[in-house]
Structure formats: structure tokens, C-alpha cells
């Protein structure tokens, strides 16, 4: 009996010990869970410097954030930004000036991509001569500068910018080729009643050719600013925002220079053949409010295929308007997301419009929107280079619109589009 009782007592003790261990284990687990919960509660006030903590703060687990597809997150980001109220200061953009980074531009032309694009658009040789015109030690703006060939023909004509610089090209298009690439040229400069000629010049040249005129020459207060905007359906994703940005730019530029410069604005729009209009042209006006109203009235529709009637819009912009005969700056902002149709006659019209723009001192400044492909990027940069302009392009940073092509350029600073446009205008009219 004693042996049975002892065995029973031993079994009871083992069972009791087992129960106690279970209870202690449960308490330990509960304490760990509470500690984890308390750590999560304190995260909003803890600067951990990690994105995972930020995800927890918004109620997402680290695992959920890590497993979320990148494309889905990007789409959510875009939708959230696009739903924001439409106002100026939302689109983002960058700038690249190929004329200021000429060695890099030449290297790009020697790449397969650059070579293919220049051939595709009918550009032959970017043999450039930079000319700097001064008078009494100061830059001369809007001086006519010509590159003269051996047969006394004008190979290229341009006008100096506010820095006194003009860019001349030999052999840019097939119709201004010289029989010998070693041809020597003459450069002729005309400003006011003065004319100077320098002979035996090589193109391309090493460094700037400096030409100094006599006496101090007057500087015009006239500035012509034109916006030529693609309003086809493919521009719809950014059109409303572009309207807000351009209205802001026009208003700011008008206000900033109201007492110093005589500014004229022109707002023009284009689509494609077979649309309800191809080019909607408006003359230059000093009435800034009128230019703003014209932009506000536009809606994006039409188009259909990828190319648009760019050559007709550019031809109308350059030759169909009364640009100032004397001006400190003539700026043509070409806002678009598609190239012209790739046909021989259309390419010739593009070449002709670019040549005429350079001759008249009209700087073509493209604003490349979403949808611009590689070949279109090069065409726009070629047009900017040939006319003394610069290349602007929208970026994905705003989260507005479709994806934007990352251009083949060096490091650049992303800025708000409206601020960048005002900055560029001010630089040309300084």
C-alpha cells in the first residue's frame, strides 16, 4: 500500500510540475508579444532612418512593403499625384544645352544611336563655328552673322544672342554641302550700319572667332516669346497641367519685365492632317491676358497615329508671324510628344524651317513631353543646336502623365517646369 501511495504521489508531483511549466511558458510568450507590440507603438516617435519603419507607421508590415510589386507602387504614386488639384508648379523638367557641352555632343553623334538618328532625320555634318561679336568691350546682341562659301554663297546665317554669340554650320543639310571639307570660308558680321568681314576661316573652328565692332551699339528692349503646343489626344495626360504651367510662366515673365522690356507673346496650337484643324495660329500680342486666355481654351484631342504635323506648325511659327525686326531675343518654345511624319518632303520642310529660324534669330527651345522616343529626342536637340536654343524635357518626378524618356545627357538638375521656363527666358533676355 505504501508503494502504491508513493507512486501515486510521484505522478501527482510530475503532473503539477508539467502544468507549472506550461503556465510559465505562456507568460513568457505573452511578455515577448507585448514587448513587440510596444516597440511598434513607439516607432512613430523613433528616428530609425529606414523605409521599413515608415511603412510600419502607415499600417503596413515590412513583408507587405517588400513584396509589393514595384510597378504597382509606381502606378499608385502616379495616380495619387495626378489626382492633385491642377495648378502651376507640379510638372517637373530638366534642361540640357548641347552647345555648351559640345565635345559630349560630338561624342554622342559618333555613337551608333546618334549616327543613326542624324541620318534618319537628314542631318549631315555638325561642323560648327562659334562667333563672338563685341563692341566697345560689350556683347552685341542681334547682329547678323553669315558664313560665306568660296562661290560667295551664304552657307549659313544666324544672329547673335544676348551674350554676343552666334553659331554657324557648314554642311548641316545636303543642300549646303561644300565640295571640299577643307574649304576655307569668310565670316561677315552686320550690326546697325557697321559691317566687318574676316576671311580664310576653317570650319569647324577651334574656339570662338572674336570680331569687335566700333563704338557702343544700342540694345533692343523688344522680346518675342512664342509657344507652339501639340494639342492632339496623346497630350491629354499632361495638357491641363501644361496649360496651368504656361499661363503661370507668361504671367510671371510679363510682370517681371513690365517696366524694362517690351514683351510680345504668341500662343499657337497644332494637331495633324485630317483633324478639325492642323494649325491654329495667333499673332503676337502685348496683351498678356489674351495670350493666357488662348491657352486656357485649348483641349487635347485628335491625332491618332504617332507622328503629327510638326513641320506645318514650325513653318507657320517661323514664317507665318511678324517677328520683331530688331529684338533682344526671339524664343520659340515647341511643346510636343511626337515627331513629324517621316517623308522626304516633310523632312525638307523641317530643314527649311530650322534654317530660316536660325537666320532670323529665332531660338527653337523644345519641351519634350511623355511619349517622345529616341529619334524624336535627337531631332529636337538638333533643332535646338542649329538655332542657338536649348533642350528641355519633362521628367517622371512629378508623377504626372505617362513615362518620360530619360534623355542621353549628362547630369542635370530636376526643377519645376514653370520655374525652369522663366529661368530660361530670363537667361536669353538678361
From TrEMBL:
Annotated localization: Secreted
Residue stretches in coiled coil: none
Annotated InterPro entries: HMCN1-like_VWA, Thr-specific_kinase-like, VWF_A, vWFA_dom_sf
Occurrences of domain VWFA (ranges): 224-420
Keyword Signal recorded: yes
Sorted UniProt keywords: Secreted, Signal
Protein name: von Willebrand factor type A domain-containing protein
Species name: Paenibacillus catalpae
Lineage: Bacteria, Bacillati, Bacillota, Bacilli, Bacillales
Amino acid at each position: 500500500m505504501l508503494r502504491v501511495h508513493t507512486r501515486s504521489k510521484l505522478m501527482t508531483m510530475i503532473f503539477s510540475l508539467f502544468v507549472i511549466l506550461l503556465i510559465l511558458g505562456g507568460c513568457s510568450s505573452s511578455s515577448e508579444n507585448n514587448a513587440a507590440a510596444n516597440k511598434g507603438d513607439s516607432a512613430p516617435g523613433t528616428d530609425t532612418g529606414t523605409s521599413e519603419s515608415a511603412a510600419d507607421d502607415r499600417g503596413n508590415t515590412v513583408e507587405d512593403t517588400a513584396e509589393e510589386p514595384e510597378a504597382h507602387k509606381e502606378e499608385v504614386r502616379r495616380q495619387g499625384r495626378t489626382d492633385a488639384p491642377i495648378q502651376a508648379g507640379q510638372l517637373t523638367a530638366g534642361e540640357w544645352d548641347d552647345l555648351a557641352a559640345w565635345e559630349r555632343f560630338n561624342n554622342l553623334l559618333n555613337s551608333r544611336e546618334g549616327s543613326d538618328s542624324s541620318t534618319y532625320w537628314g542631318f549631315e555634318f555638325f561642323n560648327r563655328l562659334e562667333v563672338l561679336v563685341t563692341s566697345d568691350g560689350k556683347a552685341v546682341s542681334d547682329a547678323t552673322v553669315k558664313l560665306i562659301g568660296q562661290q560667295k554663297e551664304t552657307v549659313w546665317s544666324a544672329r547673335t544672342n544676348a551674350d554676343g554669340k552666334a553659331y554657324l554650320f557648314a554642311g548641316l543639310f545636303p543642300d549646303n554641302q561644300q565640295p571640299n571639307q577643307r574649304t576655307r570660308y569668310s565670316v561677315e558680321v552686320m550690326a546697325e550700319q557697321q559691317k566687318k568681314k574676316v576671311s580664310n576661316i576653317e570650319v569647324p573652328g577651334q574656339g570662338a572667332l572674336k570680331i569687335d565692332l566700333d563704338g557702343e551699339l544700342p540694345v533692343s528692349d523688344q522680346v518675342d516669346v512664342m509657344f507652339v503646343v501639340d494639342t492632339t489626344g496623346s497630350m491629354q495626360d499632361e495638357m491641363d497641367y501644361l496649360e496651368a504651367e504656361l499661363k503661370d510662366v507668361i504671367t510671371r515673365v510679363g510682370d517681371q519685365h513690365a517696366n524694362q522690356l517690351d514683351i510680345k507673346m504668341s500662343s499657337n496650337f497644332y494637331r495633324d492632317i485630317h483633324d478639325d484643324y492642323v494649325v491654329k495660329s495667333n499673332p503676337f500680342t502685348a496683351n498678356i491676358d489674351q495670350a493666357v486666355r488662348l491657352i486656357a481654351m485649348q483641349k487635347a484631342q485628335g491625332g491618332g497615329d504617332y507622328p503629327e504635323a510638326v513641320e506645318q506648325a514650325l513653318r507657320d511659327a517661323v514664317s507665318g508671324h511678324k517677328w520683331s525686326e530688331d529684338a533682344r531675343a526671339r524664343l520659340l518654345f515647341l511643346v510636343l510628344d511626337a515627331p513629324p511624319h517621316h517623308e522626304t518632303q516633310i523632312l525638307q520642310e523641317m530643314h527649311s524651317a530650322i534654317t530660316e529660324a536660325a537666320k532670323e534669330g529665332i531660338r527653337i527651345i523644345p519641351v519634350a513631353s511623355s511619349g517622345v522616343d529616341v529619334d524624336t529626342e535627337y531631332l529636337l536637340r538638333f533643332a535646338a543646336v542649329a538655332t542657338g536654343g536649348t533642350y528641355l524635357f519633362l521628367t517622371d518626378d512629378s508623377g504626372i502623365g505617362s513615362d518620360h524618356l530619360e534623355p542621353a545627357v549628362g547630369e542635370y538638375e530636376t526643377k519645376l517646369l514653370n520655374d525652369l521656363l522663366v529661368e530660361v527666358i530670363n537667361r536669353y533676355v538678361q
